[in-house]
Amino acid sequence: MSCPFVLIHIGKHFPEYTNTCIKQVRLWNPNSTIYCIMSESHKQKITEEINFVSIESISNSSKHAAFHKRCPVEGFWKVTTERFFILEDFMNQHSIDECFHLENDNLIYFSMEELLPVLRQTSKGISAPFLGKGHMSFGVCYFKHLSALEEMTTFFMCQPVNGNDMINGYAFFVENRNISSCLPTCSEECDILENEIDFITEDSPYFRGFWDALAYGQHIGGVNPLQHEYIRNYVNTNCSFLTSQFKYSWYIAPSGLRIPQVERHGNKWLLYNLHVHSKDLESFTSYIKE
Description:
Layout: E1 5-8, H1 17-28, E2 34-38, E3 51-54, H2 62-70, H3 76-93, E4 99-102, E5 106-108, H4 112-122, E6 126-132, E7 135-136, E8 140-143, H5 146-156, H6 165-175, E9 180-183, H7 197-201, E10 209-210, H8 215-221, E11 247-252, E12 258-264, E13 267-271, E14 273-275
Parallel strand pairs: 1-2, 1-4, 2-3, 6-9, 10-13
Antiparallel strand pairs: 4-8, 5-14, 6-7, 6-8, 11-12, 12-13
């Protein structure tokens, strides 16, 4: 098995919850390689065992440099797109062809050793969860081949400057179905917008649970307090299905680790990840606190 986890952070501020994200990855994957790509100034702030790569050490490709010229205005949506150019440069320079990328406000609940055969079987090139209404989510994404990532960044270079990774990512998936796959976020047994069922349930027979694009994490843990006031059981209206149709609980695995579980009409599904939009990752880790 050779599929490393890759986290990327761009910026001067170090989000402390990054360490919780890494700790959770390591809990489920004690032998996996975890790369953290960020400013050299953050190196001593990482408390977990990882392979640290400074952004400063990665040489920008001509395509990456062109992206900067094309998108001169700094901001959140620029860096969420730029991370893919950084990831492409990193993979090229480190001779990596396959990886699993996650944002640092995500928690995962799976062993890569167990799940990788399914990801390789189902993915056409890039796999990520679809949120709904023309929005992909790249909180977690699997790259089966570097060439698929290169196709996506080239596509992004042709999109409107005022776009973002969620909207442009959806456009890429629609136009490049031969190299893109949607990680299932719900089941056909549930209430889903009819015209989006295919994207939401793609490859669901191969997986035993659901992936969280964003909506499950927002429903369970709330939204980012810097952007919205707290709303209990928040329902993201951009999502293709209502998260309020489920009951939520913890499943305790034989290992003693807990996994979030959703239930509807007696059917239960485990979540492979939780996109913790509130940034309160500690409340949803797999280790049970004393």
